[in-house]
Design a protein that fits this description.
Blueprint (H helix, E strand, L loop, with lengths): L2 H10 L4 H5 L2 H12 L2 H18 L13 E4 L6 E5 L14 H11 L11 H14 L9 H13 L3 H8 L3 H17 L2 H11 L9 H9 L8 H10 L14 H16 L5 H8 L24 H13 L8 H10 L3 E4 L3 H14 L7 E7 L6 E6 L2 E2 L24 E2 L12 E2 L5 H10 L8 E3 L33 E3 L1 H6 L3 H11 L1 H10 L7 H7 L16 E2 L1 H12 L3 E3 L4 E5 L7 E4 L2 E4 L5 E3 L3 H15 L17 H5 L4 E6 L6 E6 L4 E7 L14 H14 L33
Helix pairs in contact: 3-4, 3-6, 3-9, 4-9, 5-12, 5-13, 7-8, 7-9, 7-10, 12-13, 13-14, 17-26, 18-20, 18-21, 18-24, 20-21
Family: In the N-terminal section; belongs to the glycosyltransferase 51 family.
Protein name: Carboxypeptidase
Keywords: Carboxypeptidase, Cell shape, Cell wall biogenesis/degradation, Glycosyltransferase, Hydrolase, Membrane, Multifunctional enzyme, Peptidoglycan synthesis, Protease, Transferase, Transmembrane, Transmembrane helix
Length: 740
C-alpha cells in the first residue's frame, strides 16, 4: 500500500489510529507526512523501516539554554548593564502566572495534558485540513515536540547541528517525534511546560517568558494579566507577523483574541471573561534591556569606562573559558549575577571633580581612578569623555599628521583611557620615584640614605638615542626642576621635593633593574616595544631614566601600586567584582594552589614588608603637607595643600613629564587610593602646560575628601626605628659659586 493510502486508511479507521501512533516509527512518519510532501515522506520513512528509525538519536542532548548575565554596581541592586545573545532568564513555573501557562497551552497544544508527546487526534485533524487545502495549513507539532526542537537548537555546537535542529525536513520531524515520546516518559507535564516557557521565542530578542514579560510589559512573569498573557502566547507562532509593538496592532489583536477564545473553549476561562478581555486594547510598556557596555544608560554614561574595564578583565580569566572567545560566550550565555566593585557614590564624586576642572569636550583628557587598598577593588573610573561609538560630532584630531583626515577621540570615545585595556597609557613622570624608593628600602637601605643632590648630575648611565639630558661622553645628566632643590637630602626631603638628582643616585646604588622589577611586582605592565625592551633583563640595569617616569602606565595601575603602601605592603591585583553567582545560586569558582575559591576573592600577597611600606608612606606624607612622623621633609613640597583639602592623613606624589606633556597626582589615605592624570591621548606631544598641573592634584584631593565624608579617620602607622638608619655625621656641603 502507498503511504498516502495507508495514512488515509489509518485516519478513516477512527479506533485504530492511536494504537498505530504508539509505534515511534509510524508516529514520526505520520507527523512528517502532515507537514511535508507525501512522496518525500513515503520514500524516506516507511521504506527505511525500523533500521532507519533506530539509527536516530533517542536521547535529548542539549546544553542549558543561554541566559542573560546581569551586571550590578557594588550595592547588588543598581543595574549597570546586561550581556546576552538571547535575552533570557530562567524562571521556575511557580513564579510564572497561571494566565500565561494556560494561554500557551491553549495557543499551541490544546491536548497537551492528554497525549504522550505525539498527538494522534491532532495529526488526524491536521492531515485532513492540509489534504483538503492542498497545502500545509495546520501543523502537527505538539508543545513537547516544539520544546524538543528548541532544546536541540539551543544545544547546537556546530553549524551542521544548527541545521539539523532547524531545517524543514521529514527527518527532523521524525526525530522530534521520537524524542518527544522519550521526553514525556522522563519528565512531568509541568516540567515540560516550564522548560518550554523558558526557551520559547517571543520576538524582540526575548527568549523565554521572563524576557518577554520584561520587554513588552516591563513586569515579572508572575504579574502578567490574562490579556497580556494571551498577547504573548499569540507571538510564539509568528513573532514578526503578530508583533504588537508595530504601528498596526490589528494582527496582534486578532491573534490575541484567538488565544482567548481557545482558552474559553478549553474551559480555562468563562465565555463572559473572554468577551470582556477581548474588548481591552493591547497596552504595552516597552523596555529595551541594555546589552554590553555601549548600552549603559545615558544618565550614568560614565559607567561605560568601568564596564569596559570589567569586560576586559573577564576575558582574561581562565575560570570562564580556555580563550577570550569562550569567555565572552560564557559571559553572554552563562546567566551570571555579577556584582561589581563600582561604587555609584564615589563614581559620581570623581566625575564631578573631573568635569569641574576639565569639562567634557576638551581635547585634553582629565581622568581619575579610585581603588580600595587591601582588596584591589576598583571603586570609580572617571574621565571627561562620553562613552560612545558615535564620533560624528567629535572635534578635530590634534595630531598634525591626522588633522583633517580623521576625527579626534573627544568628546565621544570608547578607548580605555584609564587602563584595563590595550592602550599603553602615558608617561607618569616623578610618580615613578616610588618604585626606586621602595626597591631601595626592600633591599635593606635606610630612610636616612643621604646624597648631595646638585642641580645637574652626571650619572653612571648612558643616554639613550634622542634622550634628553645627554652630556659629555654619551652620559646621561639629568637636572632638577628648580635650583632650590640643590643640597643634601634623605628619602623624606628627596621625595617630598621630587629631587631628580637625588633619586638618580639612589637608583644607581640599588640598581635600575631593581626599580624596574619593583614596578612589575606592584602591578605595572609594559605595553610598548621600547618599554618591553628597556625592561628586559639585559637592558633594565642601564635604564637610568626609569626613575623619572619615562615608561607608559595607566591611572589604574598607579592607583593600585600606591594602594599597596596604604595597605602596609599587601599588593592586590586589580579586581572589578565582589561577587559572581551562577544561575544555580552558587559562586563561580577558580583554582588557586590546587584549591577551588570564588572568582571574586581578592588576590592579594604581602609584596613588601609592612615596615618598608610604612617607611615609604612616611616619605610620601612630605609631599602632601601632612608631614612625616619620623623624618624632616625639608620645609616645602610639591603639593603642600593636599592635606588641608582632604582634612585627614594623606600621602602621595606629583608627577610631570618633559614640557609637562602629562601631569599626574597619586594620593591615598588608609581607606582609598586615587590616581589622576591630564594629557592629550590623541597627541602625547600636545603639552598640557605647567598651569594645568594643579588639576590632577585637586581632583584626587577633593575626591578623597568627599568620598570619605562622615567616616572615621584612620591614621598611618609610622615605620619602626630599625628602617630609619642614622644621619651621617659629615654630609657633603653645597659648593659655593665663585665670584667673577
Amino acid at each position: 500500500m502507498k503511504p498516502l493510502s495507508r495514512l488515509k486508511g489509518a485516519i478513516s479507521a477512527t479506533g485504530r489510529l492511536a494504537p498505530i501512533l504508539r509505534s515511534g516509527l509510524i508516529a514520526g512518519v505520520v507527523v512528517a507526512a502532515v507537514t511535508y510532501p507525501l512522496a518525500a515522506v513515503g520514500g524516506l520513512g516507511l521504506k527505511a523501516g525500523a533500521d532507519f528509525y533506530d539509527s536516530l538519536p533517542s536521547e535529548l542532548k542539549s546544553l542549558p539554554p543561554a541566559q542573560t548575565s546581569y551586571v550590578y554596581a557594588s550595592d547588588g541592586k543598581t543595574l549597570l548593564t546586561n550581556f546576552y545573545e538571547e535575552h533570557r532568564k530562567y524562571t521556575p513555573i511557580a513564579s510564572i502566572s497561571e494566565n500565561i501557562r494556560k494561554a500557551i497551552v491553549a495557543s499551541e497544544d490544546g491536548r497537551f495534558y492528554e497525549h504522550n508527546g505525539v498527538d494522534a487526534k491532532g495529526i488526524a485533524r491536521a492531515f485532513v485540513a492540509n489534504h483538503t487545502a492542498g497545502e500545509v495549513s495546520q501543523g502537527a507539532s505538539t508543545l513537547t515536540m516544539q520544546y524538543v526542537r528548541m532544546a536541540l537548537r539551543d544545544g547546537a555546537q556546530t553549524p551542521s547541528e544548527v541545521m539539523a535542529a532547524t531545517e524543514q525536513t521529514p527527518i527532523r520531524k521524525i526525530r522530534e517525534a521520537r524524542l518527544a515520546i522519550k521526553v514525556e516518559k522522563e519528565m512531568s507535564k509541568t516540567d515540560i511546560l516550564e522548560r518550554y516557557l523558558n526557551v520559547a521565542y517571543f520576538g524582540h530578542r526575548a527568549y523565554g517568558v521572563f524576557a518577554a514579560a520584561q520587554i513588552f510589559f516591563s513586569k515579572l512573569p508572575q504579574d502578567l494579566t490574562l490579556a497580556e498573557s494571551a498577547t504573548l502566547a499569540g507571538l510564539v507562532k509568528a513573532p514578526t507577523a503578530y508583533d504588537p509593538a508595530g504601528s498596526d496592532q490589528t494582527a496582534a489583536t486578532q491573534r490575541r483574541n484567538y488565544v482567548i477564545d481557545r482558552m474559553a473553549e478549553l474551559g480555562y476561562i468563562t465565555p463572559a471573561v473572554a468577551e470582556t478581555t477581548k474588548k481591552e486594547p493591547i497596552k504595552l510598556k516597552i523596555t529595551e534591556p541594555p546589552n554590553d557596555c555601549i548600552a549603559v544608560g545615558k544618565k550614568n554614561n560614565s559607567w561605560g569606562f568601568f564596564c569596559d574595564m570589567f569586560k576586559n578583565w573577564w576575558l582574561s580569566q581562565p575560570a570562564f573559558g580556555a580563550n577570550p572567545g569562550e569567555r565572552e560566550d560564557n559571559l553572554r550565555r552563562g546567566g551570571y549575577k555579577i556584582t561589581t566593585s563600582l561604587d555609584p557614590k564615589v563614581q559620581d564624586i570623581a566625575m564631578e571633580h573631573v568635569t569641574k576642572r576639565q569639562p567634557i569636550g576638551s581635547a585634553y583628557a582629565l581622568g581619575e581612578v579610585v581603588v580600595q587598598p587591601g582588596t584591589g577593588l576598583v571603586k570609580a573610573m572617571a574621565v571627561n569623555r562620553t562613552y560612545s561609538l558615535d564620533q560624528a560630532g567629535n572635534g578635530a584630531h590634534t595630531d598634525p599628521k591626522r588633522y583633517g583626515k580623521i576625527k579626534g577621540n573627544y568628546p565621544n570615545t570608547v578607548n580605555p583611557l584609564l587602563g584595563g585595556g590595550n592602550l599603553p597609557g602615558y608617561q607618569a613622570g616623578s610618580t615613578f620615584k616610588i618604585f626606586t624608593m621602595v626597591a631601595a628600602l626592600d633591599a635593606g637601605m635606610k630612610m636616612n640614605t643621604w646624597f648631595y643632590a646638585p642641580h645637574r648630575y652626571k650619572s653612571q648611565y648612558f643616554a639613550g638615542w634622542g634622550e634628553r639630558g645627554s652630556c659629555g661622553g654619551g652620559h646621561w645628566c639629568p637636572s632638577n626642576a628648580s635650583g632650590s632643590m640643590t643640597g643634601n637630602h634623605a628619602m623624606w626631603s628627596g621625595f617630598g621635593k621630587s629631587v631628580n638628582t637625588y633619586f638618580v643616585q639612589l637608583e644607581q646604588k640599588v640598581g635600575a633593574d631593581k626599580a624596574v622589577r619593583m614596578a612589575e611586582r606592584l602591578g605595572l605592565k609594559w605595553r610598548t616595544d621600547i618599554d618591553k625592551l628597556q625592561a628586559s633583563p639585559g637592558k633594565s640595569k642601564t635604564w637610568g631614566s626609569f626613575t623619572l617616569g619615562v615608561a607608559d602606565t595607566t591611572p589604574l595601575e598607579m592607583a593600585n601600586a600606591y594602594a599597596t603602601m596604604a595597605a602596609d605592603g599587601k599588593f592586590c591585583e586589580v579586581l572589578p567584582v565582589t561577587g559572581i553567582v551562577k544561575p544555580d545560586g552558587t559562586p563561580a569558582m577558580m583554582e588557586v594552589k590546587g584549591k577551588q575559591v570564588p572568582v571574586a576573592t581578592p588576590r592579594c600577597r604581602q609584596e613588601v614588608s609592612k615596615d618598608v611600606a610604612r617607611a615609604a608612606t612616611d616619605a610620601m606624607r612630605c609631599v602632601t603637607g601632612y608631614g612625616a612622623a619620623k623624618g624632616a621633609c625639608g620645609g616645602w613640597s610639591t603639593a603642600p595643600g593636599v592635606y588641608g583639602m582632604v582634612d585627614r592623613p594623606v600621602a602621595g606624589k606629583t608627577g610631570t613629564t618633559d614640557d609637562t606633556r602629562a601631569a599626574w597626582f597619586v594620593g591615598f589615605t588608609k581607606e582609598l587610593a586615587a590616581a589622576s592624570f591630564m594629557a592629550d591621548p590623541d597627541n602625547p606631544f600636545h603639552a598640557t602646560g605647567d598651569y594645568n598641573s594643579w588639576k590632577p592634584i585637586e581632583t584626587v584631593a577633593y575626591t578623597l575628601k568627599d568620598s570619605l565624608k562622615g567616616k572615621d579617620v584612620q591614621q598611618f602607622t609610622p615605620p619602626s626605628d630599625n628602617i630609619l638608619g642614622k644621619k651621617p655625621a659629615n654630609l657633603p656641603k653645597m659648593k659655593k659659586k665663585k665670584k667673577n
